[in-house]
């Protein structure tokens, strides 16, 4: 199996190469190998790194909390309540997956300003919740369905109302689903580029991905690649850390999300 | 007697499952719990979608109060729009290339990693998956630096071998470089889906095949591929759809250049809307794209369904 070993080594090098290059480059400044010069230049770039971080975090928090809230109740309804129109509603939610974001962004650009959510981070967050809706609802419906119905019945007998039951009895059982929903809502909103590009037109509202693209599209001559590398590390680090901490949810979510068809 | 009883029981069960407990109350409660999702669905999906169709029937400049109806002008004009036609053929070409590469490479890596649960395979899986974790725009920006002749290592390495590729300077190289970046970013993702498909194939099928003296190649051809059909079809749907709506990778890496040689459909739509300020024409293009994708998806979903019924899962 010499060939296979050689092939694996080559592939691993090709996959790791760009990551190593950006990591080494981000911390190098001139002849100094470990320096934070590149990062500190980002602090004063444009509106300043902290502004962009704050904007991104706002979008992330609203998207994650919103997705959890919406999918917890919808997932419960689809799994536990047999209501008229539930099938049509479920298919309507899944059909979001079929529509390219470009087809929605042109009307959203006009429609959001009518809702007074144009050029707003909250408006962007709501659109992100909508993008995540099929995955979140599908995930939570499956999570609730995996919980034995006896648990509900026992709680009913004890005189639990539905809301009380969800929060006190079922929540611990569906928490892995919630973590997956939250994780993917985080990744989507932290990294979203096109939607932010179209919906936000005020530099002070930009998110991290927009800041980074501005960095390479700067009108001031040459690109500051050191700062770009530092920015890429900042943008990728939370995702990589979450990957190693929540690896189990990651692969589970990707395969569940993939079977969504 | 026993058979009759069973029949009655069956009928009872079927009556029950056909007419479930759908009282007025439970319908009300169900919609109540689903209400937040319904609000998001209506406000940010269904209304914009309808709005998109409405805009596509009007002369709708980005600014300005009047939006006279001009249906079907926006749709008729699409076929005269040279930029749209060019971007359509470029997008199809790109999609064909990326589909071939991603499918082969991810299946190949999955097959290599799948055998044996060694520590080495675990590490390799993590390495291949790592790029998937970063955002697409981040990955594109990373390659912009990685391929840059002065700061990136690629030109330096190729120079050592006497080659001097102009990574983003010619139409063919710009496409090649973008395909390289997308391969780096997405192979691990499809590899993981392929792995879950491979793991669903029962071990004893392989064992009996090897007992029967089937060669590795024919085992792959006659056992692995047929049993993987639904997984392969699924990956195909995702890659084809992703290819047809490509935007970020080209916007960041090539900006559509050089000489508009790498302009995708979605890029044309956005240019029509936000550079030409013709929202109506852009909306019409996006409706056409949407219809094409829906047809493509429905055709392929049928393929997957058929395969699923044949699967022993």
Write the topology of this structure:
The complex is a heterodimer of chains A (261) and B (313).
Chain A: H1 2-26, H2 37-43, H3 49-80, H4 86-94, H5 101-114, H6 121-145, H7 149-157, H8 162-191, H9 194-199, H10 208-216, H11 225-245, H12 247-258
Helix pairs in contact in A: 1-11, 2-11, 3-6, 3-8, 6-8, 7-8, 8-12, 10-11
Chain B: H1 2-18, H2 24-56, H3 73-78, H4 82-114, H5 119-133, H6 136-146, H7 153-160, H8 171-199, H9 203-211, H10 216-227, H11 229-244, H12 248-253, H13 265-274, H14 279-310
Helix pairs in contact in B: 2-14, 4-8, 4-11, 4-13, 5-8, 6-8, 8-11, 11-14, 13-14
Which CATH-level-2 architecture of the largest domain in chain A? Answer: Orthogonal Bundle
Reading the helices and strands of chain B in chain order gives HHHHHHHHHHHHHH
Output the CATH class name of the largest domain in chain A. Answer: Mainly Alpha
Distance between the termini of chain A: 38 Å
Radius of gyration of chain A: 22 Å
Strand content of chain B is: under 5%
Shape of chain A: globular
Mean pLDDT of chain B: 87
SS content category of chain B:
mainly alpha
> Oligomerization state of this entry?
heterodimer
Number of helices of chain B: 14
Annotation field: number of helices of chain A: 12
Would you tell me the overall average pLDDT of chain A?
91
Largest interface: A-B, 85 and 87 residues
The level 1 CATH classification of chain B is Mainly Alpha
**Total discrete domains of chain B:** 1
Based on Cα principal axes, name the global outline of chain B.
globular
* Backbone CA Rg of chain B: 26 Å
The name of the CATH topology of chain B is MetI-like fold
Order of helices and strands of chain A: HHHHHHHHHHHH
Q: What do we call the CATH homologous superfamily of the largest domain in chain A?
A: MetI-like
What can you tell me about this protein's structure?
- Chain A: It is found in: Cell membrane.
- Chain A: Residues 53-246 form the ABC transmembrane type-1 domain.
- Chain A: It is a multi-pass membrane protein.
- Chain A: Keywords: Cell membrane, Membrane, Transmembrane, Transmembrane helix, Transport.
- Chain A: One of its GO terms (cellular component) is plasma membrane.
- The complex is a heterodimer of chains A (261) and B (313).
- Chain A is 76% helix and 0% strand.
- With 261 residues, chain A is an all-alpha fold.
- Chain A folds into 2 domains: 1-35, no CATH class; 46-258, MetI-like fold (Orthogonal Bundle).
- The longest helix of chain A is centred in the first third of the chain and has 32 residues, at 49-80.
- Chain A is globular.
- Chain A starts with a helix and ends with a helix.
- The mean pLDDT of chain A is 91.
- Chain B has one domain (82-310): MetI-like (MetI-like fold, Orthogonal Bundle), CATH 1.10.3720.
- In chain B, 76% of the residues lie in helices and 0% in strands.
- Chain B is globular and about 75 Å long.
- The two termini of chain B are 34 Å apart.
- At the A-B interface, helix 1, helix 3, helix 4, helix 5 and helix 6 of A face helix 2, helix 5, helix 6, helix 8 and helix 11 of B.
